[in-house]
């Protein structure tokens, strides 16, 4: 059998450390500004471009924490120049006049800061009203505070959030954008470095009349309940509710929190998971600041400069990177354009979905290939091989992955012409028992068997992602999608 050059031949052995790749340099020719954040200039997008970026506004790309139930759904997407974006979709009824929508969005698009999720464009075609912003890959403050999986957000990260958001609000105020609509834990997102940023979507009204306010009424500024309008001091009140979230790690209505503070029981507010991480005087300072922000009368609340002066001294570990504090792995943002459910499952590293798809696919991708799965003569050796394959397939189906590996390994040694499907199944079995290096080797062998088989590329991508080699994983996903498209085009013709 001839030796075929693998797409991953340039990679080091899986036993070695992954290569360190330099950060990409900005390319002014692609419309990127060489400024503090390398953010492209604000522009009006065509609807077709945004539809393509989101696979037709696919429900699979919705990133709103309430999903499709959110009043204004947010999607993630990828532009043709490989920039990743977040797209907020309004209803036409919210902004009936397209020119008014574009004017408002353009004004927000002029406000740029490294502590903001910057707005980079909009679209107002037909019934669509869309905002386009930078994409933040590491979830919202709400997710990290209330729905964490690996570890609660540490104290130092919480005071960093308070400081960075105050900086963002201060910059917005200096740009004469003193109104921020509905500030809450969903509006704070974490970028690829793990740094907290304030969503620029909150600088834009949810509707042309500005009367919408989506949070629970218990957290709504008192003056909004009275008048239906937001004023600059409302932003300070909402900042106070975010401080309560940071202190407690849960949703506490301001009225209840203020009762505890007045009763000198403020330490009852504190998240028990933070015990031992902070000095009592620092916690008291943040509690006192929250109390000032939550005053019923707007005139009694502090201004943004006061917020900055109050939270700046609480930063005690400024030299520690945010992603280290949060315990997250720094990886490039990837949302490939994929043509198959298997590719999508590999991209999101959903091993259960991959298993289901491989079971349904079976061995049909090897039909017509010269291999030992179809036989001309019946021998004892053939019988042994078929039995071994049968037992391997049963173990794989029943998710007995250790036995599947054992039977498939025996089968590989028996077959004169290897099967790509067997290698792919053994690769997934290795991933299921946390052996990504062996999985990568098997996926590469599958590509040797079937050089243009998308599944082999997708499985390599999955193994590479598990090994933390995201750039190479992206290349494999793109190659798989390319061969998928080639296969579909040949069917059409």
UniProtKB/TrEMBL annotation:
In this protein, which residues make up the domain named Protein kinase? 60-326
Q: Which catalysed reactions does the entry list for this protein?
A: L-seryl-[protein] + ATP = O-phospho-L-seryl-[protein] + ADP + H(+); L-threonyl-[protein] + ATP = O-phospho-L-threonyl-[protein] + ADP + H(+)
Q: Where is this region: Disordered?
A: 1-36
- Where mainly located? membrane
Membrane-topology annotation of the record: Lipid-anchor
* Family statement drawn from the similarity comment of this UniProt entry: Belongs to the protein kinase superfamily. Ser/Thr protein kinase family.
Protein name per its UniProtKB record: non-specific serine/threonine protein kinase
Protein's organism: Punica granatum
